[in-house]
Sequence to fold (224 residues):
Amino acid sequence: MNLALDEAGPAEHAHTTAWIASVLRARIAAGQLTPGSKLSEQSLSAALGVSRNTLRQAFTTLAGESIVTRIPNRGVFVASPGVEEVREIYRIRRTIEPSAVLWSEPSAKDLDAMEAIVRRAQAARDAGAVVEMADANQAFHEAVVGLTRSDSLRELMERVLAEMRLVFHAMASAPDFHAHYVDRNAQLVKRLRAGENEKAAAELRGYLDAAEAELLGHLTGEAS
Fold:
């Protein structure tokens, strides 16, 4: 389990619970910690240079976000989101992302960065690199919320994307899932570049509806 610290290091962060939760959340969002993985207090406290008590507080934070699950007498595990969790994720996304697109005034730099992410996704799709395509998709939606210039919304999206990464693992048997949305992302950037924010927001809402329906169909099909 590779949990390299960021450049600031733990000392500067004073081993805060929020920082530890952020590190673990980022690793989950990056796909480095997968659904069902047990989070060992001993190895994590050693890797992060923190006490077990502080680590447990971070686990409590992540459990409240449905990113980890505590199982009595067994330990803490990375969560495996189900149908209700997917519905809640998309309630949040439909509230934040279309609004970010509708009311934003993206700079040329913002749009160039989003186009670069789209090109990365297209290259991954053409190469059949599913993980890299999923990474680019996550980065694209993070960039969408970044258009709000709101640190609070960025933090919320970080939590949502961490849970989304766990949902994506359920789509392992549908490797073309992300491919459906690469061209939609490209179209979204074109709309924004043309100043067509209202059309972009409406298309993004339809995009999110379609993605939710596909995920729910897959999950309920597995359960039946």
The chain is about 70% helix and 5% strand. Strands lie at 68-71, 75-78.
